[in-house]
Structures are given as C-alpha cells and as structure tokens.
Amino acid sequence: MSVSASAAFWFLPFVLPICFYVSFTDLREMRITNQAVLLLAAVFVLVGPIILPLTAYGMGLVQMGAVLVIGIILNAAGAVGAGDAKFAAAAAPFIAVGDLRLLIAIFAANLMAAFFSHRLAKHSPLRRIAPGWKSWDAGLKFPMGLSLGGTLAIYLILGANFGL
C-alpha cells in the first residue's frame, strides 16, 4: 500500500467514529449530515499538517477539491446523492493516489456486501431491531453512506497495518 502506516494509524481514532456515524445516519435517515462531512474534512485539515509531509498534505487538498467538483457534476446528473458526493470529497485526501486501484476493489466488495446485507436484513426479522429506519422503505434507493464510510474505515485499517 502507498499510504503511510503511521499516517493511517494517527488518522484512525478521528476518522473511525465519523465513518460509523455516517453509516448509521444514512441507514436511519437516508442522509449524510453536513456536520459529519465538515468534521471529516476538518480532521484532515487540522491533523494532516502534523502527520503528513507538506507535499502529501497539499495533494490531499487538491484531491478533495477535484472529487468535490466531480461529485457536484454527478449529483447534478442524478447519479449520486449530494451527501454521498460531499462525503467522498471529504474522504479523498485520506487516500494515497497509488492506492486508487486497491480502493476501488475495497469499495466494490464493500458495496456488494453492504447492499446484499441491507436487503437481506430488510426482509428478515432483523428489521424489527430498528423499525423506524428510512432505508427500509426507500424503494430502490440504497444508503451509500454505509459503503462509503465502511470503505474509508477498511482502507485506513489496512493502511495502518500494511502501509509504507
């Protein structure tokens, strides 16, 4: 992995709770809150300069901006939700460019697992544990925050263990 193990390790305690919160709120409310997105971006902006080289920090900020522009375009085209696009932008600086192929593989596997788990739970007695969740009755819509938050969490955990 191209990500620094040290950086991934230091980001984890700040990022993991946000990832869990995003997954939970998207399941419950079918939305990713602006507060969670801003907090994730703030973690990078505030902690990044302390643990990353200046070039890696700068590249992370560029990645955040680029993913935000792409996300706005995809949202305008109706391909992704606004919260999903904003979360992806806030998560982008945590990803090393050299790990993009690995990230896509993690996201694909996580998306399939999350989608099928959500659909199975939706039609099982497990649904009674959280009867008020909007994601149960969202039709064909899927709470992507479950996959997006999970992907960032898995990536950083792997990075802390197997990074440079």
UniProtKB/TrEMBL annotation:
Keywords (A to Z) from UniProt: Membrane, Transmembrane, Transmembrane helix
Q: Which InterPro entries match?
A: Prepilin_IV_endopep_pep (IPR000045)
Q: Where are the transmembrane segments?
A: 6-24, 36-55, 61-82, 94-118, 138-158
**What's a GO cellular component annotated to this UniProt protein?**
membrane
GO MF annotation terms: aspartic-type endopeptidase activity
Keyword check for Transmembrane helix: yes
- Every copy of the Prepilin type IV endopeptidase peptidase domain together lies at 15-116
Top-rank taxon, per record? Bacteria
Q: Does the keyword Oxidoreductase apply?
A: no
Which named protein is this?
Prepilin peptidase CpaA
Organism of provenance: Sedimentitalea nanhaiensis
